[in-house]
Amino acid sequence: MVDSWATMDLSIIIVNWNSIDYLKKCLSSIYGHAPGMQFEVVVVDNASYDGCAAILASDFPEVRFVQSTENLGFARANNLAFSKSTGRTLLFLNPDTEITGGALERMLVVFESKPDAGVVGCRLLNGDLSIQITSVQAFPTILNEALDITRLREWFPRSRLWGNAALWEREPCVSEVDCISGACLMIRRDVFEAVGHFSTGYFMYVEDRDLCYKVRQAGYRSYFINTAEVIHFGGTSTGSRPESSFETIMRCESLFSFMRWRRGRLYAGMYRLTMAATAVGRLAALGILSAFRSRRNQDRQLQNSLTKWVAIFRWTTGFESWARGYARESS
Known about the structure:
Blueprint: E1 8-16, H1 20-32, E2 39-46, H2 52-59, E3 64-68, H3 73-83, E4 87-93, E5 97-99, H4 103-113, E6 117-125, E7 136-137, H5 142-146, H6 150-155, E8 174-177, E9 179-180, E10 184-188, H7 189-194, H8 207-217, E11 221-232, H9 233-240, H10 245-263, H11 265-291, H12 300-316
Parallel strand pairs: 1-2, 1-4, 2-3, 6-11
Antiparallel strand pairs: 4-10, 5-11, 6-10, 7-9, 8-11
Helix pairs in contact: 10-11, 10-12, 11-12
């Protein structure tokens, strides 16, 4: 049952962290393509104090603003914003996104046409309007994490390993998928409450896949609609810059936590061992490739790959135990 006090059709929830320039464009796109329904926007600043409070007050006074005094991470900050919302449907939206015409209405219609829909997502586009393959994903497994290689994804884009075959459908359709990207994830309020909100055991990464997993376990489904599109600039920046060792290790730690909480300690242990073997294999291959190139000609991508897999190997062998401090008991 939807809470009787839920007064809005839609609550758009945004967590800001040093993203004020993106946030202004995001909000302009929301109000510039205002859906034909009652909606509200709730923004939480995750202790970045980047001036968003003053800018929202002057340029977007209708936004409900919440200032957090600490960086709560993705899950806890979104849960905080949810507690301030009143919508019957929720849209968790990254600040580095821009809404395109009709996207929100098309996503909402899916809930009407699919009675078992708990979560709905849309096609995410990079700044150059190419498709982001992380718009939809499969639930994490040992196999799809160990084989997550760009070339394999290019060769077998419709493989069930990646869970994003729906991205490549050319005809307008609504497809059931495993996971919707947290950059633009719409969910029914009653479903979000039933599954216990975002799990706060993660500081960053995997929260969206974990939420979709809990939704599936509760008997609901996640759907992807390919006729609704949202531009996500963060996908471009992530792909064009090296992932820091901190981000790499936190991703591994979050995936390990998902495996442990949702698939058991033995499975999580096998994931760590598999990633150790994978890291050794990748580093050996990269070392051979590096040997055939002069130091002057070694490209940045190769250096980034070496840094990434060294970090992963260090994590698998326990040298990055500090990361465990970011994990809490799953909720």
